[in-house]
Write a structure and sequence with these properties.
The protein is an alpha/beta fold. The chain folds into 4 domains: about 130 residues, PAS domain (Beta-Lactamase), CATH 3.30.450; about 200 residues, P-loop containing nucleotide triphosphate hydrolases (Rossmann fold), CATH 3.40.50.300; about 100 residues, Orthogonal Bundle (Helicase, Ruva Protein, domain 3), CATH 1.10.8.60; about 50 residues, Arc Repressor Mutant, subunit A. The protein is built from 22 helices and 16 strands. Strands 2-1-5-4-3 form a 5-stranded antiparallel sheet. β3 and β4 form a beta hairpin. The longest helix has 26 residues.
Length: about 500
Amino acid sequence: MVEQLDRIMSEDAGQLLGGGSWREIVLALDEGIHIVDQQARTILYNHSAGRMDGLRPEEVLDRSIFEVFPSLTFENSTLMQTLKSGKEVSQSQQTFVNMKGEQITTVNKTVPVIFSDGSRGAMEISRDITLIQELAENISSLRNRFSSERSAETAAPGSRVKSRFKSNNTSYTFADLVGENREFKKVMNDAVRAAGSDSSVLIIGDTGTGKELFAQGIHNASSRAAQPFIAQNCAALPRELLESLLFGAEKGSFTGAATRPGLFEQASGGTILLDEINSLDYDLQAKLLRVLQEGRVRRVGGQQEKEVDVRVLATMNQPPEEAFAAGSLRQDLFYRLSVICLSLPPLRRRRDDIPLLLDHFFELYNSRFNRKLEGITPQLKQAQLKYDWPGNVRELQHMIECGFNLVSQERKIGLESLPLHQREKLSNLKGASSSNLAAPLLQGEIPELESYLARVEKKMIIRALNQSGGNKTSAGKMLGISRQSLQYKLKKYQLE
Ligand SMILES: Nc1ncnc2c1ncn2[C@@H]1O[C@H](COP(=O)(O)OP(=O)(O)OP(=O)(O)O)[C@@H](O)[C@H]1O
Ligand SMILES: [Mg+2]
């Protein structure tokens, strides 16, 4: 940056305030640009900077910053700090009341510059994050409100509503984890052991494999169970917002700043779960590493460090080697976080658990929907056993939930109780029980769906009736539908 500006300046130094294409570009930028000379006199100030400060460029140009901004001092001005040290001041966040009385939050970077005559100056580049900041405040206060309402709900004496949420912000314990597969059991055992220690844990697994469940299970089985559990997704928010959410924000060097503790402080004594850690900004990963190593946080814009006692759990859905190669995960942070590393197998690697999970979610929704369904049809079960489940347990759970929503008079959930896209997913399987149904689709032919399905349904009914010697009850059983439902279909297809 120093070099670039020096070159630009030397090419165009005489016209700094006059004209020239580089100047037009700078003036048109969304970022605020403010350049001062060695005497802290403004020599360039674009409209975006003016919008943030509530000033017109003419009011600032050619005047000392101390004259224009009376609240500035040699100590609190980042432009002065850079002028004095010749060093960059990076990404400092400031909240201040501008000349129009508006409270503005900016993220600033101040860099030293050298002019063509050899004299030095400083340039401040500012980004307005006021809206983002407001969003952060809202998220933070909603989170607090939500969590205290949950606590009140679970703590209410004589409360007749059995909350699924425990007062520490969680919904699951190890007892909620379903699975008997050997590899899964081994990870479960490791997780149970991890609950007994205070070390960081990195949970790696594809989407829907149960990373959040494992994290909550560890917290609830640990000595921190009575303390808060706070989960934050690292992919969802821009860097500045996430930084102040995690570490808090302190009254800036200007006036009127909001002071807010971060999630690390709010989770004090408890556990913080950093979801999708490989999406966390690379520089912020370094800051997180320092917090983990030192056990202390410093709020954004703050001077003092505060000790925090928080256990950190993190998740990611990418193998570490891939994340290193993509430059999305720092190796030093990885080694710090993966003191204990749990690698959750995808559902396709624990197929023996599919029947167990199907039964588990069937029972869950039978009771949640207050239904008395009898089960899942053998056809559907067979297709589910052969399916690859890219969305893992979450996909399986949603499929059952969908079935409960769409099933009508039938006593069992079958292929016909699923929405079209799910039926197609299950049918597009080589060797699935429904391969007859899928065959023309696999060959590339797209039949008119409704009549095609009707044709297949009719064929299956005839086959079942033939095999059962015309007995409707056992034909219905074979098809996984009730006698009444079969009766209705016989009428519909005029098979009576
Ligand atoms: N072993 C399991 N037993 C019971 N339910 C499970 C199991 N694993 C996952 N689930 C269910 O699957 C859903 C998804 O799990 P979870 O949110 O933990 O996945 P995740 O690995 O965090 O996924 P993502 O990477 O998409 O955030 C949960 O709602 C939970 O009900
Ligand atoms: Mg998750």
